[in-house]
Amino acid sequence: MAQTEIPFKMDEKELVPRFLVRAMFGLMAFVLLLVGYAQITDHAKTGVLIEAPIVAERQIILVGTREGAVTVTDMGGTVLTYSTEDKNGFIGVIWRVFDRQRHTEGVDKTAPVRVVRRENDHIAVIDTATDLTVELIGYGSDNIAAFAKLID
Question: 28 lies in which domain range?
């Protein structure tokens, strides 16, 4: 009988050096101690979004298709814009987020969402049906402008 060879034979040497494994666990322990210290001493949280008061808002309805094309209408049914128009593709991205959340929670998919401008000039999209808020910070000026022009 012919002897079969094992195609994947492990080498005797270590795949990950021992000092890297120790460094990884040391870093995890250090972070755990740091977070524990911050919690015990009630250290002030930094980098946490402060929601400024709302200065302008508009309720809109997002109606999408399976292909991802979204029609944006006001509460009266007037078409405001389409996600397929120039630089409006981000509207489709946000619609997919809300659509998925609404599907998960079993909420009406045609319920309106609020587009708000805050006192600090930030734009947010709020779905009151699911209590989901998307603060449009760091998404790029064209993406934010797609929603900002719905308020202006």
Answer: 14-48
Cβ atoms within 10 A of the Cβ of 126, count?
19
- Of 66, 141, 73, whose CA–CA distance to 96 is shortest? 66
Which has the closest alpha carbon to 115: 91, 96, 88? 91
What's this model's pTM, rounded to 2 decimal places?
0.69
| pLDDT tens track for 101-114 | 999 999 998 899 99
Residue 25 shares a structural domain with residue 90: no
Phi, psi of 70 (to 5 degrees): -120, 135
Can you list the alpha helix ranges (DSSP code H) found in 1-105?
Answer: 18-40, 89-105
Nearest to 133 by CA among 44, 52, 79, 78: 52
